[in-house]
Amino acid sequence: MLRIGLTGGIGAGKSTVSSTFSELGGIVVDGDVIAREVVEPGTEGLAALVEAFGSEILLPDGALNRPALAAVAFPDDEKRATLNGIVHPLVGKRRAELIEAAPADAVIIEDIPLLVESQMASLFPLVIVVDADPEVRVARLTQHRGFTEADARARIAAQASEEQRRAVADVWLDNSGTADQLVATARALWHDRIEPFADNLEQSTPAQSPPRLVPADPTWPAQAGRIVARLRTACGHRAVRVDHIGSTAVPGLDAKDVVDVQVTVTSLDVADELADALLAAGYPRVDGVTDDVAHTDDAASWRKRLHASGDPGRPTNVHLRVDGWPNQRFALLFRDWLTADADARTEYLDLKRAVAAEGHETTDAYAEAKEPWLVEAYHRAWAWADTTGWRP
What we know:
Blueprint: E1 2-8, H1 14-23, E2 27-30, H2 31-37, H3 44-53, H4 66-73, H5 77-100, E3 107-111, E4 126-131, H6 134-144, H7 149-158, H8 162-168, E5 171-174, H9 179-202, E6 213-214, H10 220-235, E7 241-245, E8 255-256, E9 259-265, H11 268-273, H12 275-280, E10 285-286, E11 305-308, E12 316-322, H13 326-340, H14 342-357, H15 363-388
Helix pairs in contact: 1-9, 3-5, 6-7, 13-14, 13-15, 14-15
């Protein structure tokens, strides 16, 4: 099962995307629909709202008067928090029931308007944000949904900012154009990324990426931040720490477009226990792997477990290593040493470019070609650590 978090501000066009995914075979769990269900007449949700906000939020027939509730709750931060505190737990319970009833191979599209505000992004292997310019959204709300301009602007201002949404977005869909353009973009996303991702998880197979060197990408740290948050959520207390490592963690260093993250655990048994949780988070296990420069110490203390992303749009390696073992410490040291030592960084970049020019067709061959330099770098890095007092 692949769970996707879909969100976007009011008037951005999120419903168009969810409808498109539904037509293509996704199972849409719509937060707005559920939010209406849990406050229908006779529900505990509606009773709680009346207790909190008074009977003036009801229509003559006893149903919820949504504009009246919005007028009371949305302009006031405290009242809006009260509203969310009543509705969100009920929505979450119903959402869990719907997901549990879905087939094991389903693609679940969780349409959650307040995904960012509720800090739920790290629960999903993929987060899609639909956005449009605020003025476009105001025009849509006033022309097609009966909002006054003041109410439209108040609703937009009460939701997450563009900056907050970008921070959690694995995919950003700009809907400043036509509905047909958005549908075409959503269809391409489904076929090129979502379907292959779901197939990879069903088969427990990581996405494949060629060992191609690319220029340093200033967005790598932000991308890694989302992955780290996702892994912390998936691993919970069983992870001692989760760190962005490897070349993409070194500012300005060209690298393969693969984000490496290290999950530190207390034992390899714990790493094995995390396999199912990591698969659900989007990271199937890769068997038969060894660490680079393993022969520089006792080989047993260089063992690890490796998972890799099933998402073809964001290749990622997740290294599970034991706290205090040489490979766990060296992964952190190597990143920090290269960041601090410009000469070492230049040497490593020259090596990477030379190896890339040799045209290695597999990641293993690419890594093997770098190993002689890495063996020497292991000792140089630890000499730097001793001199500077560096510790993990």
